[in-house]
Amino acid sequence: MFESLSDRFDGIFGRLRGKGRLSEGDVDEAMREIRLALLEADVNFQVVKDFVARVRERCLGSDVATSLTPGQQVVKIVDEELTGILGGETLAITFAPRPPTVVLMAGLQGSGKTTNSAKLASWFKSQGRHPLLIGADLQRPAAVEQLRTLGDRIDVPVFSDPSDPVSAARAGLEEAKATGRDVVICDTAGRLSIDEELMDEIRQISDTLEPHYTFLVIDAMTGQDAVNTAEAFHETLELDGVILTKLDGDARGGAALSVKEVVGRPIAFASTGEGLDAFEQFHPDRMADRILGMGDVLTLIEKAEEVFEEEQAEEAARKMLEGTFTFDDFLEQMAAVRKMGNLSSIVGMLPGVPKELKNADIDEGEMGRIEAIVRSMTTDERNHPEIIDGSRRARIAKGSGTSASQVAALCKQFGEMQKMMKGLMGPTFAKKKAKKNRKKAKKGGRVTASKKQRALQQKNAATQLPQLDEALIQQLEDQDLPFRLPGR
Amino acid sequence: MDPLILILIIVGALVLASLPFVHRAWSRRGGVPGEIAPDRERPSIVDTRPPDLGDAPTVEAPPEVEPEPEVVEEAPSFFARLGKARSTVAGYFGSVLSRGVDDDTWDELEEALIRADVGVAATTELLDTLRDRAKQDGIKESADLIAALGDEMKNILDADRTLDSTDEGQTVWLFVGVNGVGKTTTIGKVGKRLTDEGKQVLMAAGDTFRAAAAEQLGTWAERCNAELVRGAEGADPSSVIFDGVQAGWSRGVDVVLADTAGRLHTKSNLMEELRKVRRVAEREPGVVAETLLVIDATTGQNGLVQARQFTEAVDVTGVVLTKLDGSAKGGIVFAIERDLGIPVKLVGLGEGAADLVDFDAGDFVDALLG
Questions:
Q1: CA atoms of A123 and B314, how far apart (whole Å)
Q2: What pLDDT score does B266 carry?
Q3: Domain for residue A339, yes or no?
Q4: Which of A4, B29, B117, B205 could form a disulfide with B230 if both were Cys (CB 3.0 to 4.6 A apart)?
């Protein structure tokens, strides 16, 4: 989603990095390009203006002028300002001491309120809560049926009352209290912010429900108007946060950058796909890193944690490093990766991935084909792929419905991956690590490279991708990790 | 085998990357949240035809009773309907008008156009042309300048906007677009317009993905006495559209309005599905006379990408700009018409059945400039 914006920043920073000194002209040129990149990403005009002014001022300040690596200083300033704009901290959801915790959903037509009400309910469920959905969208034909269908899918009860939205909300709240549901999510009809009558109606719904959280649902593809909409809804309803939808498209999501800045309310959740589980809490700092092409390692790790079995993963990694990783192990790990979500979104979170790879159209069916090929192998073949000869290849191809050349390609790539992994324990990796440690020691800082840094190195080495810029690594390292690393 | 290499790399990288972290607090998390929603897998075609009708697809005849009272509205003029939104648009140009032409004027014009979602490229080009013209004609007054800008903008929007139909076979209008732009609602309104003109209309509920989409279209079909062909939820959309075209032809309707599920233009499998829908709709006797891309007026610069991708897939012949009655200006249509030559044909100005009007470039620009 933010990828194309990060591409643009990549180019701008690339030119700055090469320079030993930055003149005012260099800075102005970079600022012009940043302005253009942000405007094309639909960031609000005023927000861009203020942002560029702030960054420019800081860039022309003494820090950058005297720095040996002015280009990196600029990246750092932009990163800090971006994180600031996106809203710093993740919105923490707290629950009402006297349940139910009430959530009101509002937004324009077609922003995805109904779907995201269900997604939010599903999220609360995964947090161990018992939500109830109220269908108060009586305007759009079949909106309540849609909510009911979605409710059935996630096994959450749906309440509605065809009389009018306000009484539906009131009765829904009573229903929740009577049936002991501890979270209530009220879906409402889409409305334009300039429609006074409907804005008045939602104010009444809000007065009735006295929600603990009021979320505005905004389409990531929205243009300059996102800010007007958010302002108008904020005036009427006193928003607590924003749910950003359709982030799985290629919209640059400038609306996300603008809304926090103008309304002062953070993006709480982001919807990243059509499946009801494609919904996550929004982490502004991680998003800023992602925009600047630094990857989103934290989210990646969290996702990996959810799906990888601890012992299995350790075993697999050990085997990989020893070079005894078999096709069976590979299959297991691939199944886990598949659970993490679609490949393109995972690639987006990896730091230092070249943009050709990031933008590559990954055919998810390919994974199925790989699985079919491996499943058509005998145990012997899986453990010792080198025994696969012409006739075995033909048999495997037949069994998996692929061609012999596809089977051969997989075996070749697998062999190369094994070699690459083994190489990690070889000289390259050791040298890099030593160099890093020496540098650290000289600085008088921590003696060994942090685990996080090492993980990054491993990943980069493993994928043979360009090393991360030193400054970026330093920055990542300086970030306060929200967890303790094992053995430290 | 590019994807193959990529998959291998990712799996390998992830396994290694996860190693230092796998120790972390498994106990903290209860476990893997289960799969909640079924993936977007298309089940096999569900045969919805009742056995006694043989080959005939399910055609739901329009019921006698209208469940909801329909507010009868007069078809509004484009300009009048934009009135509500106009004041907010005009505001941007207001400060320009209050002064003579100076350096700030150009910055303010740029800001006004960008805020209307016209986009940086189109804005720059418009203002460059305008600068030349201002110099040439010696424009001194800001009112004249804005009038000249209006002329330039109207020049961009000069395409033919008639909606095509055919005598050679069954006319089909296919509606496509991303999620939530108002495809189903637009079909309802187009249906209403056509039936009011005395035409016979059949609606084919090709959105078999979104929960209750067919019910939504069904409600519209009832409102405007159109026929409806629908399949089961999750059915192959092409089969529903095919049935729709066949049913339309055998019943002699004038236009088949084909709905499709909203899809992001980045999902290649779904765009492939859409290509198939169009191919199937083109089968004898079907003739896809219009492929209308529905775009939400609030859409920003991504609208151009959408238009490009959808055109590539299904050869879009026109744009329907919806929700223009809000505070959004829909300036993205300039970029779409300038870069891709796809004309805006219809505009949605409200929720009522009569709130769909022909696009009028002159009125649109005038409204935009206040």
A1: 36
A2: 85
A3: yes
A4: B205
How many domains would you assign to chain A? 4
Mean pLDDT calculated for residue range A400-420: 84
* Closest partner CB to B302 (pick from A142, A249, A362): A249
Which CATH number goes with the domain that contains A223? 3.40.50.300
CB-CB under 8 Å, B215 with A142: yes
pTM of the complete model:
0.71
Which pLDDT tens digit goes with each residue over B65-93? 333 334 444 445 555 655 544 444 455 66
For residue B300, the chain A residue with the least C-alpha distance is A223
CA-to-CA separations, B16 to A367, A418, A464, A481, in angstroms, rounded: 19, 12, 13, 19
Task: Judge contact between A138 and A172, C-beta under 8 A.
Answer: no
Instruction: Decide if A251 is inside a domain.
Output: yes
Q: Are residues A370 and B4, on separate chains, in Cβ contact within 8 Å?
A: yes
Assign residue A407 a region (left: φ > 0; alpha: ψ between -120 and 50; beta: otherwise).
alpha
- Same domain for A210 and A179? yes
* Beta carbons of A289 and B15 less than 8 angstroms apart: no
Determine, yes or no, domain membership for A231: yes
Q: Which of A126, A316, A339 is nearest residue B15 as measured by Cβ atoms? A: A316
Phi, psi of A243 (to 5 degrees): -110, 120
Whether residue A93 is contained in a domain is answered as no
For residue range A10-35, list pLDDT tens digits in order.
777 777 777 777 778 888 888 888 88
Residues of A in contact with B192 (CB under 8 A): none
Give residue A392's domain range. Answer: 298-424
Q: Domain check: are A144 and A277 in the same one?
A: yes
Residue among A122, A246, A421 minimizing CB distance to B36 = A122
ipTM above 0.85? no
B116 to chain A: which residues are within 8 Å by CB? 224
